[in-house]
Design goal:
This protein is of the alpha+beta class and 152 residues long. The protein has 4 helices and 7 strands, in the order βααβββαβαββ. Helix content is 29%, strand content 34%.
């Protein structure tokens, strides 16, 4: 397993994973904007040379926002999402983030469990956040203190 910075050459694989994962996934130009953005940090996860996951985070001053994270369906349930998330959290803390936040679908219990394992807590609700079906999003946040360890 290897986590490395995302490049524009990764976008075909990233888009394939994105559109197989999310009902209204990001389009290519959104990923391109993140690759060019000065506060955006995008990484990919490879297993045996195959790109199987990615994460995008923005770090602005002391705040990190997890914008997008996904692992390809056949590779789920192996702890790869946890490793990817922990990597992004460490990188964000190294860039000065004191805390991280994200939004997650109310019905996405698998993702909510993953986030809870890494110290995220539910702090709010964004009504009708998702455009595809009007589903609410749960706002989650966690401390990025240097000794923050994943809850096992």
């Amino acid at each position: 397993m290897r986590i490395r910075p995302m490049t524009s050459l990764d976008l075909p694989d990233v888009l394939r994973i994105e559109h197989s994962t999310f009902p209204m996934g990001w389009i290519k130009s959104m990923f391109e904007a993140e690759l060019e953005g000065p506060v955006s940090h995008s990484v990919v996860l490879e297993v045996d040379g195959a790109l199987v996951g990615y994460a995008i985070c923005r770090v602005i001053l002391d705040e990190a926002h997890l914008m997008n994270i996904a692992v390809e369906h056949p590779y789920r349930g192996r702890g790869l999402g946890l490793r990817l998330l922990e990597h992004v959290m460490r990188d964000s803390a190294a860039l000065g983030a004191q805390y991280m936040f994200l939004e997650v679908r109310v019905t996405n219990s698998v993702a909510r469990e993953l986030y809870s394992k890494t110290g995220f807590e539910e702090v709010g609700l964004r009504k009708s956040y998702y455009q595809d079906n009007g589903e609410d999003a749960i706002l989650m946040t966690c401390s990025m203190s240097p000794n923050q360890e994943a809850k096992k």
